[in-house]
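Try this one yourself first.
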């Protein structure tokens, strides 16, 4: 008893010290957060000041040019007024009137050219466009702390399965969900190709809470931020959609090529079409095309769906012949997965812990790959009675795998 009492007494002292150390740690972390926020504020202040200075300089130069042009206009007006008066006074002198008329025509012609140049300069030099990549980067983080990437080792196992009908009363065709993604709220966004709709599925009831009719067939959908998503449409357009409260179209970008898969990689838009992947800024500025590997061979045959990796620096692309190709930010192939276990690859998603899921429409399954591309096995198999699984997405917090199959949204709880 004496020995135990002594041990408990030492344990009490240790726990008391742990409490004190924990309080010190809290103070240290809070100071670090405050200091980090101060650095971020200073960086934003610097960017703001640089933008303000640039606008001041551009508008200042434009103001000088406009004032000089205003002065020129006034001088021209004075010349025209004088010339008109001389024409009136020389009504009986046709030669002098002819000379004054030619002088007036030259003055008017020069003035019109100067006005046209001024308008063009004003249109070309004066512009301000938001750098939305900065806002996108900030919105895509849950806190100022860097989150460690937790690895899930081994194959997920299905614990339960529930199915929900996502066909609406005004849908004219059987649902054909080509793509899906999980929003920060946990709600699921679906791209219904046949019914030309984007559907928002509630994360608790798994019923379609809201839908948006788009101009043509939607093919792929991805989350841009906690309040915005992007949808690739059949007419070479990427439509941005507000996901706050209810679905609403916002801006759109039109490209000179077909748009199939869409994802965000390293803060940029990755848009696939057949055997090519195009990289653009969020404002639609072209950056590069990914097509050939370092040996000059085609990396893809026909890309279907794409998704970004958990760290956002690589991208997974499912191909109708090459199954799954993962590329890095430099455009080089990191690894490729091809197997007889999966046929007619269609959907792809990650679990947030380094694992990748791939659906096979013909093989009627969903396979799991490790972070290095190693095949781990089937998570969903033919035994789960799927007819044609296509779009897949994963809720990392609830550990649920969502698989679309015609009118059905299947919810698999996994462990």
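Now uncover the answer:
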């Amino acid at each position: 008893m004496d020995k135990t009492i002594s041990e408990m007494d030492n344990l009490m002292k240790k726990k008391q010290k742990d409490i004190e150390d924990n309080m010190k740690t809290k103070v240290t972390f809070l100071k670090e957060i405050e200091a980090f926020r101060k650095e971020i504020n200073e960086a934003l202040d610097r960017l703001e000041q640089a933008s303000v200075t640039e606008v001041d300089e551009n508008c200042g130069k434009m103001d000088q040019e406009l004032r000089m042009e205003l002065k020129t206009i006034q001088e021209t007006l004075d010349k025209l007024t004088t010339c008109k008066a001389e024409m009136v006074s020389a009504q009986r002198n046709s030669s002098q009137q002819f000379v004054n008329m030619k002088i007036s025509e030259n003055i008017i012609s020069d003035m019109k050219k100067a006005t046209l140049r001024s308008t063009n300069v004003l249109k070309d030099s004066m512009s301000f466009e938001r750098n939305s990549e900065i806002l996108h980067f900030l919105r895509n983080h849950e806190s100022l702390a860097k989150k460690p990437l937790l690895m899930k080792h081994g194959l997920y196992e299905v614990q339960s399965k529930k199915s929900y009908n996502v066909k609406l009363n005004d849908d004219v065709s059987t649902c054909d969900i080509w793509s899906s993604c999980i929003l920060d709220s946990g709600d699921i966004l679906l791209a219904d190709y046949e019914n030309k709709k984007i559907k928002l599925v509630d994360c608790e009831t798994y019923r379609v809470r809201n839908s948006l009719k788009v101009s043509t067939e939607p093919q792929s959908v991805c989350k841009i931020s906690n309040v915005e998503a992007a949808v690739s449409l059949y007419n070479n357009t990427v439509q941005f959609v507000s996901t706050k409260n209810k679905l609403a179209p916002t801006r759109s970008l039109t490209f000179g090529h077909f748009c199939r898969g869409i994802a965000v990689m390293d803060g940029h838009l990755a848009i696939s079409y057949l055997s090519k992947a195009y990289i653009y800024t969020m404002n639609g500025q072209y950056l590069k095309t990914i097509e050939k590997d370092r040996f000059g061979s085609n990396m893809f045959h026909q890309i279907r769906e794409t998704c970004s990796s958990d760290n956002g620096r690589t991208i997974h692309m499912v191909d109708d012949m090459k199954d799954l190709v993962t590329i890095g930010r430099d455009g080089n192939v990191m690894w490729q997965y091809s197997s007889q276990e999966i046929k007619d690859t269609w959907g792809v998603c990650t679990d947030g812990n380094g694992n990748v899921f791939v659906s096979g429409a013909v093989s009627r399954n969903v396979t799991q790959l490790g972070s290095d591309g190693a095949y781990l096995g089937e998570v969903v198999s033919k035994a789960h009675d799927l007819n044609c699984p296509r779009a897949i997405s994963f809720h990392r917090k609830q550990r649920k795998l969502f698989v679309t199959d015609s009118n059905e949204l299947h919810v698999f709880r996994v462990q």
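Discussion: Helices lie at 2-89, 94-125, 132-139. The chain has two domains: 2-125, 158-414.
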